[in-house]
Structures are given as structure tokens and as C-alpha cells.
Amino acid sequence: MVLCRVPRWSVRLWASPGWWRTTCTLRALVRPKRGPGCPGGASGPLACRTFSRVSSCPPEVMLTQERYPVRRLPFSVVSEEDLAAFECIVPGRVVTDPEVLEVSNVDWLRTARGCSKVLLRPRTSEEVSRILRYCHERNLAVNPQGGNTGLVGGSVPVFDEIILSTALMNQVTSFNSVSGILTCQAGCVLEGLSRYVQERDFVMPGPCHIGGNVATNAGGLRFLRYGSLRGTVLGLEVVLADGTVLDCLTSLRKDNTGYDLKQLFIGSEGTLGVITAVSILCPPKPKAVNVAFLGCPGFAEVLQTFSTCRGMLGEILSAFEFMDAECMQLVQQHLHLASPVQESAFYLLVETSGSSTGHDAEKLGCFLEQVLGSGLVTDGTVATDESKAQALWALRERITEALSRDGYVYKYDVSLPVERLYDLVTDLRARLGSQARHVVGYGHLGDGNLHLNVTVDAFSTTLLDTLEPYVYAWTAGQRGSISAEHGLGFRKRDALGYSKPPHAVQLMQHLKALLDPKGILNPYKMLPTQA
Ligand SMILES: O=C(O)CC[C@@H](O)C(=O)O
Ligand SMILES: [Zn+2]
Fold first, then answer.
1. According to the model, what pLDDT value does residue 26 have?
2. Which of 6, 20, 242, 257 is the most buried (most CB within 10 A)?
3. Is 437 within 8 Å of 329 (Cβ atoms)?
4. For ligand 1, atom 9, which residue shows the shortest CA distance?
5. pLDDT tens for residues 120-131?
């Protein structure tokens, strides 16, 4: 039993259309039991970018090879004979239509573009194996592609690599409702998987397209609660560059036999093998989910609110996200979303997920009373139904979309000691002055992960040179990571040395050479350019 006074502070309860300002009682904080499919909170996977492309008639995206200094490696060029061979392996699923290819050649952000002439759509691991065996023999480069929602140019070709799409590999193989272990093909889309496991009282622990997420070790909004895919992925099936099928698709929680090979492929961004199937541990679906959206006067208060939150909400805390005032301004301006709280320097989204509605609401109430009473938080809102919780989440989740509508976006995704997290934003704002439209900071504060984004009218190499390697050196100076969760892809591969020592980079290069001696798998990605 939580001992706590009825809060005297005033919060807005988002219980009906429009905002209600009311005195919050513990009863008011007890939210009705959520039904299945709670997209606002009960489900794990809110990091999935569900919004559509920015414009219906977007301008042509500059070819990556023209924007950046990169040279094509001596791979073979796809011939008519190759197309015929592919047609034998995946009949009717060899795509050469330029219009269809255009979508797969351009990344989600519309800032990277390859010029692949062929897209293959296998359905089985056997087909992937035959394709890779063929490409290996012919020295043809391959770009594995999942949902193509990456943010570092890793999921699209740089030149004319063959696009190997896992989209049709979308079958669930098995689900164990006692252990919560799901085994499925790599192309399963999270939305469908989420629905599938939620009907069975579980949630997915990670975001979006499952194979792509494992390949990039994507983080997501509930990393704080469910941890890294490195912990929840139990087994993998991977097709190696020469077509060998590596079956490590076990469903065991404990297995200390030899090197944990699957870890090599998690986060390898398709450079060591193509992930074709995944076995993953799903946590049970929480019975009670609460979402609070709060305004904070400064970053020092944000940090203190986080400490208080960890202390008071501990085991039920499932997300602690922050965004600055410029982020709020951008979601208001470009997406016409309304702020539910008074204008503040920072905003926080706190989510709890637990098993007891009343108990969790009481705990959240005590926490809110504490932070509002002490002035750490100046205004707050608690969502009392699922759609309102979703609307609160949208303010945070749709920042990326709002930024894309603001102009060209330079994106950084860094891990830093939490107390220094915002200093980089302040520093960069001063450094760039009027060269930038906006310099914003937001992200997964609970994980020490800052998303630093700079918007400008159009891409400029001069500005890129002002930003890089400055941001990387700054981050390295704090012993941070230059890529917390988005990976290195094409854009950040040459910055690897800011986060890993030379011997580690060398060992990575040896591993790449061992597993993919011809370098055909996702070339120009993840590892630094070699002289
Ligand atoms: O666009 C970004 O910089 C971050 C995207 C994503 O990781 C998020 O947390 O919203
Ligand atoms: Zn993120």
C-alpha cells in the first residue's frame, strides 16, 4: 500500500475533448482498465515511425554518390543473365520497374539515394541462400532491406547494389504462451506482430520491422523498461555472404555453449549476414498504463525530476522522454498539435506500466505531488484514456516528422552522461547562430540518449563541416557514443573511431573479411572507408 496524501496541486486531466483543469484526486488518477491493442502505452513498440512521407510530390533526392565523396568498389554489374538466374530463384519476384525501385532506392528521410536496377523479394531462407550464393560467385553487391526506416542511410544502396527485400518473409513460425517466446521470419512488421502477441496477453519488446530492428539493434521508446534487443533476442537464423544458412534459432533463455554468435549479427547492419528469422522473448502485457506529460522550467529540474521518478516509480516506470521548447514549437507549427501544458523550457513524458491499476495510479499521484509541490515541474497533464495517452505520445513521437517538414535535417543520436546531455545542444546553438533554422534536443533521457537535430533550408557541405567532426569530438570528449541507437549506416561510418579504439575497429574489419571476404554485403556501410 502506498501511503500518500491526496494531491492538492492542480493538473489537467485529459478525459474529454478539450482540456479540463481540475483538482487531481487519487481517484481521478486511477485510469480505467485498458483494452487490448493499447497503442498509446500498453504496447512496447511506439518508436515505430508510422507516419507517411513528407510530401505528396517531393523534390528529387540527390544521389548519395554525388552528395558525398565515395567511390564505387569493383563489383560486377547486373547483367541480363543475372536477371534470368534470379528469375529462376524467385519467379515473378524480380523487380526492375524503375518506379517501384525508386521507393526502395531512397531512404525514409529522403536524404540518401542509390541507383539500384533490381530488387529481389524472396519468401524463404532457402531463396535468400540461393540468391547470396549466386551473388557471391558473381561478385555482385547486395543491400539487404527491411522496412527502410533507418536514419543513417544504411538501408538503401549507395550505387547499384541489388536490393534484397525481406518484406515477403512475414510469417510467424511459433508462439509459446507460457514463456512468451515468439519465433518469426525477419520481414514481419511490428504492428502485425504486436497485434498477434497482444491478443495472447504479451507485448513486443522492440520497435518496427523485426529483422531490420535486430540488424540495427534499434532502441526505441521503452528501452528503459525492456532493455536492448541484445537481451530479448534469443536466437537468429542468418544467411551468410556465401549462402551458408547459420541456424542459431534457439528459444532458450540460458545457453552458455561457446561464443554467442547471434550477438555478432545483432547491430551489424546487414554487413555480416542477412537475418532471415528471429526468436524473441516478449514481456507480458501490462494491465495498467499511465501517461503523464509535464512542463519543466530548466534542464537541472529535468534531471531532478528523473531522479525523483526513478526513486518513486521504480519498477513501474516504462518510459522517461524529454523534448525542448523548440521541439514543441515545431510540432505545433508543422503538425498542428496542441501543447497540453503551459509553455515551458522542457517537456517530459513519463509512462508507467504495471499490473495493478489502483496501485500504479497512487504511485504516480505521489510522484506528481512531489515534483509539482517542489517546483521541479510547473504544469502537468495525465491522460485518462487510451486515445488521449496516444495523443500525448504523438507530441514526442512525431518530432522527427515535424523536423523533416522544417527543411534539411542534420541528425545526431548520441549517448552522453545524463548530466551533460543538453550541454551539447546549447553549445551547438551558440556555435551555429543564424546558420541553422533550429537546433533541437530531445530523446530518451532515461537511457542517456540525446537526439540532436539541426534544421536548415538546404543541405550544405560547409555546414556539414562545421558540425562534423565537432559533434563527434565533443561526444568522445565525454566518453559518449556517437550512435546510441540509430547505427552508423553510410553517413556515420567514418566516425566509428570516435567511439571505438583502433584495435576494436581493426577487429571489426577482420570479422567482416572473415564472414564476407568479397565485401558484397551492404558495402559502404558501418565500417570506415579503407584507404
Ligand atoms: O529523428 C530522430 O533524430 C530520432 C528518431 C527516433 O529515434 C526517436 O526517438 O524519435
Ligand atoms: Zn530514438
1. 23
2. 242
3. no
4. 443
5. 999 999 999 999
Complex ipTM value: 0.99
Q: Which residue has the cell 521541439?
A: 327
Rounded to two decimals, the pTM is: 0.90
The ligand whose atoms approach the alpha carbon of 396 most closely is: 1
Minimum-distance ligand 1 atom for the alpha carbon of 321: 9
Q: Report how far Cα 277 is from the mean position of its chain's Cα atoms.
A: 20
Task: Please name the amino acid found at residue 346.
Answer: F
| CB of 222 sitting under 6 A from ligand 1 | no
Q: From the CB of 216, is ligand 1 less than 6 Å away?
A: no
**What's phi and psi for 238, nearest 5 deg?**
-135, 135
Could you identify the residue written with the cell 530548466? 298
Name all domains of the chain by residue range, CATH numbers in brackets.
Answer: 10-43+286-400 (3.30.70.2190), 72-165 (3.30.43.10), 172-281 (3.30.465.10), 407-515 (3.30.70.2740)
Cell of 82: 543475372
CA angle 504, 507, 513 (to 5 degrees): 145
Q: Is 411 in the pocket of ligand 1 (CB under 6 A)?
A: yes
Cα dihedral 303, 307, 313, 318 sign: positive
Say how far apart CA 448 and CA 450 lie, in whole Å: 7
Q: All 3 cell numbers of residue 158? A: 549507395
Tell me the C-alpha to C-alpha distance, in Å, between residue 179 and each of 20, 235, 265, 287. Answer: 42, 14, 24, 18
